[in-house]
């Protein structure tokens, strides 16, 4: 059969100018200057190209035969090929942002132009309890769609967010699988309370705390609760940043809100099956070059000789140090990091998802498995995930739906915190000639045979496993009561169960003589009921939406711990075989939050926008009189580009100014009963059982509160080809929470109080540009940069509060580094002040700045020498497409922050101890006047090992975070394979880091849960360099 059609610039515009075959006269009159062509439609096979109005190919357009599951999607060239059951079949063509078309098979043409849907093209942003068009927002938000990351490889929610959202900074505790991260939005918001934003997943506010327990006792790394969420289930991430956007969440929103929306089925969608699989190998991103045995012995014995000579010690004296010798002369040195790590650690990910939608019912379901070996031998993380989202229209007035997500993670942890500074640090500190085993096969013992704990012994004699189970569930019912009036009831639950197991045999460095097992179990149950009423009305050019609601939330926690010792054999894995129970305890808690809220959105003529919101929260965490907090916000926007005076044909296609002010609160990080006195049992006095007060009450404890002012601009250029967003904010936080130390005579160590205030100010900029777009080649760029300045504006008594190597001080950033400032090296003894000379300081030792000019080194000489927070940070993404090939290059950067290399203190001590040494430090030490002014002499002396800027380094970096090359099979090939689409790819992650930092990775902070001590590197496992190959299939 032959089809006649009209060609317009090599295209057919179906929605605007399609000509039916029964109207040749009309066609001739209207388009007399246009040519006609013939296009042959075979009996069953159809093919062609789908483009937009500018002729650019549309990728991923769904084409299917109506009433069947027979369909396909377009490839990177916009091409498709489909076999029809008959020539009269109806073809449905659908694509997000474009009008859906229905055509008979004999109406198809070689090139189809889809017509934009003005309503669908408006980008939607998920805000509290609603969805709004981005162009109508008055608050500050950042958004990330799944389509933005579909060409990159991500394995967790925080990986998706990092570097892609302005104002959002993510720091890793380590590179261990499932390891903890710190997510901060617009800087640090609290000293003692939580700095984590509120995560809302499909309307469920979830906790991001790690409720495992053994990690705190034996050093297993803190786990990242976000690692339980399958990132392939995520449809979009919307970050609410200013108070206008977050105040609707009141007391939980001072650190921002992250709205996570998972995928759902769509109306009229054919059944689509997606299958994805990937496999990769991981390795350490760099090596720290260590001194060999000869250099080690030279420097160590030089330090010993300097010590003995300077102190006039001779053999037989109590303090005399003997020279070290290599017990294995002529034998190769030991690479201790190599002993405890894989050369290549495997990572694999598999997932299948199904989605479909009729006029009444839509569903999405997925099943996923993720398996990642850690670089340390016994470390492994596995995740099993299952999700189902179902929506059903009961009638025009009633809609219901349910979402259920089940996940399980198994994390075989490794010692990281309390076993010294961690197994990684302890291993690199071993001497180069040390070995893990004696000649008879027994372990070398740390502190006896070798200087540090034996990493092989630790790994072999320990069994550590954490299992997490999580259920996220939500059910909703919406009722359209009247025209424009809708009621919604939402019931949600977030249930987590954690089991930490730790077995130490009798041969473990920290084990009991007959072994011990610790079993810790905890459960958290978070239940939420939301009732909302929404009314929407349009009166000529005026429109408004009013939202009112009532919410109730209850969180219950329970935990139990038991420790058994004295096992008859190391073969027993359960506590019931223990000879004695060393300890057993249970604990629990509960807190409730009751809230009412209201929001009003108004607009006039699509030019003037206004939003007002207010929320009142009542929390059981506070005492009477402080339980309720009120959090209002107000914001407005002016869409200048819609004014009559604004030129319509200029380069600016959209221009909007925004301004907002509001208040939010923070109750996270406060214990359930911190405002009350607590008593514990188990105390005995004079033969009588009793209880003792363990926590001092503070009935005056109240919310941390933040007020935030934001001014922003949204700009689109060249018909939305370039979009720009800018924001400037000032955020003041008062009534900061802090565990204030108390004098021992009180009988208590500390009390939680509101002690001060802080300010964060910053500027955010992001731009998205479609640089080149044509049939064969496209290039898109996304760039964001943020700068945030933080300072404490008041403290109780206005006195500085030292915290380890940091300080809290008015006028300075939180967690500022507070230590001695290195001012070079003494080049001769005449330079050394008399008081220091009397203490043994000589030429070649570190010269510290004498702040009080007393010629001595005392705590009064400590000063603020750096900050852990960057001056600016951000991300850069470039996406290229050529034919069926795609290339994504993703970079992240951070500039201006300092990192204190705590974990390098031992290997940079230049012979002070008998630890391994960094080659660069050992070889370039001071050996005489003028030889070096930054590395001290070899000497056993505590003077050179004081906390100082000697170990403080610039933490700035620029990373090639992800480079992915993909290829999409052409449609004529996928048709032969009976699949809709197939893409294969190769990806490299953490490929290259540009930084002057001497450690493994500057992008690290082991204390992610403590803002007071940020920016310290304990030499934990760095983020790993990973090479991955994989494929995505669509049926």
Automatic annotation (TrEMBL):
It is a multi-pass membrane protein. Residues 427-991 form the TonB-dependent receptor-like beta-barrel domain. It is found in: Cell outer membrane. One of its GO terms (cellular component) is cell outer membrane. Residues 1-27 form the signal peptide. InterPro entries: Beta-barrel_TonB, Beta-barrel_TonB_sf, CarboxyPept-like_regulatory, Plug_dom, Plug_dom_sf, TonB-dep_OMP_SusC/RagA, TonB-dep_OMP_SusC/RagA_CS, TonB-dep_rcpt-like. Its main location: membrane. Residues 133-257 form the TonB-dependent receptor plug domain. The keyword Cell division does not apply. Keywords: Cell outer membrane, Membrane, Receptor, Signal, TonB box, Transmembrane, Transmembrane beta strand, Transport. SUPFAM superfamilies: Carboxypeptidase regulatory domain-like (SSF49464), Porins (SSF56935). Belongs to the TonB-dependent receptor family. This is TonB-dependent receptor. It comes from Phocaeicola vulgatus. The lineage of its organism: Bacteria, Pseudomonadati, Bacteroidota, Bacteroidia, Bacteroidales.
